[in-house]
């Protein structure tokens, strides 16, 4: 079997073009330009790249983009003040604080401080709770992007057995909730699970969000499964730095129906869903 390689980059570009059209139409009706503010603390190179890509995509969609940079050593109060100011601005519809933060700053505090209606990452407890109840408007971007890929690939996923590896608040748990809302039978595998390979072998849909390079090998994958690899892991191979997923791509590729590559699979979809959430937040703000 030769798996279909799911081109997340191409799909995300299509989505951003569609949203650019919607932004134009909204503005033609007299609404404000949707605005996304990204807060970056410190100079972690990976975070800087993520922020640059998010801003670039917001601009491609015709949105206003604002970057607030703070020094690595900034105080919690200084960060709180920046977020509080953005909460009050009516040209800012979405706020994202790039994680991880330096160790002396509280991620929990800052997530709680962002106005739920501007929380385009969907991490605020209120938005997480609404997702659990099936009433969410702002859903975490990475799981939302994974679901979009699954629906495009498989159509109706109702009744499928989905196994999610990982139970983080930002990927694993919201992914499991979304799959449940789409009427899948959902198993969550985590670091304390017994015999994870055996659990994963039952999956029609396998989503890996672990952070362990190439953990998922051929014997974990059911023949004909759709595999979504969320992992982004930098490794050294033959003296070169390389990005790999949580799935050993070459080992499983001829066993599955479809698979996302790393890079170029889930990553770009995360950004497209951030833009989508900003548009939703702008629409709901009604200004
Ligand atoms: P995390 O460290 O918060 O959570 C990892 C989860 O994996 C935990 O719940 C843990 O129980 C589970 N786990 C760890 N070892 C395991 C094992 N051996 N077997 C089974 N489960 C195990 O990580 P996260 O923030 O959820 O991110 C996961 C991966 O996804 C990372 O590689 C991260 O870089 C990547 N990521 C990618 C995107 C994207 O846009 N593509 C977005 C967010 C995260």
UniProtKB/TrEMBL annotation:
Domain Tetrahydrofolate dehydrogenase/cyclohydrolase catalytic: from-to ranges: 6-121
Q: Where does this protein hold NADP(+)?
A: 166-168, 232
Q: Which GO terms describe its molecular function?
A: methenyltetrahydrofolate cyclohydrolase activity; methylenetetrahydrofolate dehydrogenase (NADP+) activity
The Tetrahydrofolate dehydrogenase/cyclohydrolase NAD(P)-binding domain extends over 140-283
Question: Is the keyword Transport in the record?
Answer: no
SUPFAM superfamilies the record matches: Aminoacid dehydrogenase-like, N-terminal domain, NAD(P)-binding Rossmann-fold domains
Q: In which pathway does it act?
A: One-carbon metabolism; tetrahydrofolate interconversion
Record carries keyword Cytoplasm: no
> What is its quaternary makeup?
Homodimer.
**Protein's recorded name:** Bifunctional protein FolD
Please name the source species: Enterovibrio qingdaonensis
Its lineage opens with: Bacteria, Pseudomonadati, Pseudomonadota, Gammaproteobacteria, Vibrionales
Gene name of the encoded protein: folD
């Amino acid at each position: 079997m030769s798996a279909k390689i799911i081109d997340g980059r191409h799909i995300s570009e299509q989505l951003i073009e569609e949203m650019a059209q919607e932004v134009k139409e909204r503005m033609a009706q007299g609404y404000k330009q949707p605005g996304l503010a990204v807060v970056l603390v410190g100079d972690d190179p990976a975070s800087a790249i993520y922020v640059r890509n998010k801003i670039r995509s917001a601009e491609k969609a015709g949105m206003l983009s604002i970057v607030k940079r703070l020094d690595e050593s900034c105080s919690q109060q200084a960060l709180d003040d920046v977020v509080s100011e953005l909460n009050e601005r009516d040209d800012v519809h979405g706020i994202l604080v790039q994680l991880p933060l330096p160790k002396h700053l509280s991620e929990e505090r800052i997530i709680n401080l962002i106005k739920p209606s501007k929380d385009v990452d969907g991490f605020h407890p209120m938005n997480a709770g609404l997702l659990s109840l099936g009433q969410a408007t702002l859903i975490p971007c990475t799981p939302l992007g994974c679901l979009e890929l699954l629906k495009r690939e498989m159509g109706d996923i109702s009744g499928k057995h989905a196994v999610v590896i990982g139970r983080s608040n930002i990927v694993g748990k919201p992914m499991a909730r979304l799959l449940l809302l789409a009427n899948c039978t959902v198993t969550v595998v985590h670091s304390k699970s017994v015999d994870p390979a055996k659990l994963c072998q039952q999956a029609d849909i396998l989503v890996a969000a672990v952070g362990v390079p190439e953990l998922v090998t051929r014997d974990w994958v059911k023949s004909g499964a759709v595999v979504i690899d969320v992992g982004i892991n930098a490794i050294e191979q033959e003296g070169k730095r390389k990005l790999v997923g949580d799935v050993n791509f070459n080992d499983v590729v001829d066993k599955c129906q479809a698979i996302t590559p790393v890079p170029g699979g889930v990553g770009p979809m995360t950004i497209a869903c951030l833009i989508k959430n900003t548009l939703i937040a702008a629409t709901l703000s009604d200004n």
